[in-house]
Write the structure tokens for this entry.
Amino acid sequence: MVTIMNRHTITVLTLLLCLLTACKPGTKKGQNMNEETQLKIETTMGNLVVKLYNETPKHRDNFIRLAEAGTYDGTLFHRVIKDFMVQAGDPESKNAAKGTMLGGGDVGYTIPAEFVYPKYYHKRGALAAARQGDNVNPEKASSGCQFYIVWGKTFSDSTLIRMATQRNNQRLENTFNALAQTRMKDIYKMRKNNDQEGLMNLQDALFIQAQAEVDRQPEFRFTPEQIKTYTTIGGTPHLDGDYTVFGEVVSGLELVDKMQQAKTDSHDRPLNDIKIIKVTVLK
């Protein structure tokens, strides 16, 4: 598939900003900017209601725009994994024949990542944007249309500590590999000349540089709130900080539970289609 004068000038600018704000996508006339937009997702298995976070405006406005355009009508929850999540929004899933592998469809654009972490994380019921992998998408930009709803499972305190440690170790490894990529010409030359000493010296230098870069960044940790949620309610903590969470289910979480238990084929597509009938903006 598919992570911004003088008094007269100030008065004029203020008026223009007010007019622009009144026309901002995703904000209805008379709606308080602090209110969160809610949408009803009607499916062939039942209905659920989600709310969209104002702190992720690009994802919020895009989701509303697609809903109002009918883009999601007739699409499937095409990828369902028990104890993990349910994914939907692929335009190519409309009327897709049984057995067709889905998940590659899009709307021709991506959305820049909007991580509001750790405030918003992958707790059970979280609404998040799907995306392509880091190898082709290092900026972690979101799919323009595909989304998933988290189910997940509960974890022990020790498992969460181990996950955080692995994340920090992985960050060091990724930083080292990125630095190594910038020196590939030197590495190839030393390999060609069988310069083992040169390779070892370069490796040591790159490791020191990578460690220094990682040390300048805050260490990845789960907050007390996350730990409480992941040990009692559940979720998918290994996705935190890598995928944009832009909303959550406020009604109908039991439907997500039913969906994630659906029998699926080898591509994680439910054997019996779960179709989105309509997505409607409620407020």
Remarks:
- The CA atoms of residues 46 and 255 lie 7 Å apart.
- The mean pLDDT is 89.
